[in-house]
Specification:
Radius of gyration: 13 Å
Strand order of the largest sheet: 2-1-3-4-5
Structural class: alpha/beta
Low-confidence stretches: none
Helix content: 40-55%
Strand content: 15-25%
Largest sheet: 5 strands, parallel
Distance between the termini: 15 Å
Length: 121
């Protein structure tokens, strides 16, 4: 069973993503802030991190930079964002995210999309 960490400051997004993944057999942990997510990865690295981009405190991009600096280079970190500006996906992938998922999530395909990032490991 794969363990997923979801980092998002929106409680509804967090709950929906967690519920969908747990129903499909994933073990899910959650964090509501970037610094909390970084601390959780440092304590017990998951198989995959889904990271919101814009959060109070440190952003998802800042959290990613900290994780990479800490040596978590092989940990897949996928951005989970509502940001859909033209070129945003490419910019975020160039900045080191391993994948891009757009909010609002599609309940029918979300688990398969997450699984596809685990298979790339």
């Amino acid at each position: 069973m794969s363990r997923i960490l979801i980092v998002d400051d929106n409680a509804l997004n967090l709950e929906l993503a967690r519920d969908i993944l747990e129903l499909d057999g994933f073990e899910v942990e959650t964090a509501s802030a970037g610094d909390e997510g970084v601390a959780m990865v440092r304590r017990n690295p998951p198989d995959l991190v889904l990271m919101d981009l814009r959060m109070p405190g440190i952003s998802g991009l800042e959290a990613l930079a900290i994780l990479r600096k800490d040596g978590f280079d092989d940990l897949p970190v996928v951005v989970l964002t509502a940001s859909v500006m033209k070129g945003e996906k490419e910019r975020l992938l160039d900045m080191g995210f391993n994948g891009f998922l757009q909010k609002p999530i599609d309940a029918a395909s979300f688990s398969d999309e997450v699984l596809s990032f685990l298979r790339k490991r």
